[in-house]
Amino acid sequence: MNKEFTFSIKSLRLDENYHPSNSTRITTNFANLARGESRQANLRNALQMIDNSFNALAHWDNPAGDRYSVELEIVSVDMDIEGSGETFPSIEVLKTYVLDNKTGERIEGIVGNNFSSYVRDYDFSVLLLDHNKDQPQFSIPDNFGDLHGKLFKYFVNSETYKNNFKKPPVICLSVSDNKTYHKTENQHPVLGFEYLPNESSLTEQYFKKMGLQVRYFMPPNSVAPFAFYFFGDLLNDYSNLELISTISTMGTFQRIYRPEIYNANAVAGACYKPNLKNLDHSITQIVYDREERSRLAKEQGKFAEENFIKPYQTILEQWSASYA
């Protein structure tokens, strides 16, 4: 069976006037900022933090620290399974652009950055939880992440992706608080020092099924390493400005959402274990409800189950079995 799924892409500018669309996962970091009374101030503050962080890293030929601005675009990918025009919101990522205020040039940045997926919510918040409900010991279901990984690779290899983006995606996530990271001698001018984890995590294995490798780096001005997921060669396939656009964007979001790690008052040492109970950290001026986020992840997983996994189960299973 060689069924073709089709993808359509919509883009929306992420600025202080942004309102999340109905199909956006509310737990996505940029959508979470854009809600409630402080929405406009949240967005304005976050975007200013991104610009400040970018200019601090791109400091050459930039004496006043104001040469660049970062523009963000939300890229929503809808998937049509049966060719009927009925679509399901499959993934959402961010695309960065760099505005050089000195030359007036608008430079394309990196697509990916943030990664939002209803099917991932289903896998982690429904399937994994149900599988372990009555188990004495935590275990992972057979084929966990297979369908999601194949759908992602199928999208990245699609004509739709190639027509819209020049380079493969890079996704930047926080480090895991149940692993230990060791600093190496390898240093990149923009990504900073590389760290190596003591073991592989479930997230790593899940992203590996999406075709992505991972490396951990702590950029200059950061206090903890980040996980960079990528295809190809992270250090040589992207320019410094492209990499800085991802670091400044995702570093800002992590300082807001994971202040215990990324806004800690002490910098990660040679042997680093992230701690989400670390009290020695600063809070940004941006309002964020973490408890709501974990509750909503379950609701979003159920949404995927009811609107995607169950109705198309047979088609998806046959397609997955034949997808090489």
Automatic annotation (TrEMBL):
InterPro entries, per database record: MesX (IPR015004)
UniProt-recorded name of the protein:
DUF1852 domain-containing protein
Return any one Pfam family short name.
MesX
Question: Which top-rank group of organisms is this from?
Answer: Bacteria
